[in-house]
Amino acid sequence: MSKNACSKAALTTALAIACALPRAAWSQERPWLVRLRAANLDSANKDSTGLGLSINDKVLPEFDIAYFVTPELSLELVLTYPQGQDIRSNGAKIGALHHLPPTLSAQYHFVQFGDFLA
């Protein structure tokens, strides 16, 4: 199986698990939601400089914690371990990026639609 196919399989599996979570996880009695998921970083690699610049694709494992302030409003903290990506020019490595993207976000959930996953 190719690396790209493995990445898509991991992303699909993570999405399926997230969709299978019980509706009770979002109720006021249980305001915390904890997930483990994967995100696929699929770089477009469209270089217009003529240098053949590219960056590698990567599957990023993520751990996130959400707290529902109200049934509609939540705060989510997304964490991962430090990531590294190679920068290449015509196939030769010319540099690297090392980043750790913790993200805190506010989310609004539309609850008036009823049980969407049920």
Give the topology, please.
Elements: H1 3-19, E1 32-41, E2 53-55, E3 58-68, E4 73-79, E5 83-89, E6 92-99, E7 103-108
Antiparallel strand pairs: 1-3, 2-5, 3-4, 4-7, 5-6
Task: Output the keywords.
mainly beta; 44% strand; 118 residues; three-stranded antiparallel sheet; 1 helix; single chain; Porin; four-stranded antiparallel sheet; 14% helix; elongated
Strand content: 35-45%
- Helical proportion? 10-25%
Count of individual beta strands: 7
How many helix segments? Answer: 1
Order of helices and strands: HEEEEEEE
Radius of gyration using CA atoms only: 18 Å
**So what's the oligomer here?**
single chain
Characterize the main sheet: 4 strands, antiparallel
Apparent shape: elongated
Q: What is the mean pLDDT?
A: 79
The CATH topology is: Porin
N/C terminus separation: 34 Å
CATH class: Mainly Beta
Stretches where pLDDT is under 50 for at least 5 consecutive residues are: none
Domains, number: 1
Which structural class is indicated by helix and strand composition?
mainly beta
The name of the CATH architecture is: Beta Barrel
Q: Which sequence of strands runs across the widest sheet?
A: 1-3-4-7
